[in-house]
What we know:
The chain is an alpha/beta fold and 102 residues long. The chain is built from three helices and five strands. The strands form two sheets. It has a three-stranded parallel β-sheet with strand order 3-4-5, covered by helices on one side. A two-stranded antiparallel sheet has the order 1-2. Helix 1 (43-56) packs parallel to helix 2.
Amino acid sequence: xxxxxxxxxxxxxxxxxxxxxxxxxxxxxxxxxxxxxxxxxxxxxxxxxxxxxxxxxxxxxxxxxxxxxxxxxxxxxxxxxxxxxxxxxxxxxxxxxxxxxx
Length: 102
């Protein structure tokens, strides 16, 4: 997604750098506005990431393939966030012709 022009800010408490970007332990630690939170967590952990996205005022949450949490998705929608669940961001961009591998 970086090659497609997106700024990817990794949030992972176990890493200090990912894809040459500084990694943060929590969404609240990121010092800039986050539009989209892409959730690559086990389904049972997705709710926490969604709650953090709501708390920081993200505009959308995207739960990757296999990440299904209907209650968390509903909380996000109720808070006004756009929600995508059980879909791959990269595959969607490729399918829509918005991403080409270089």
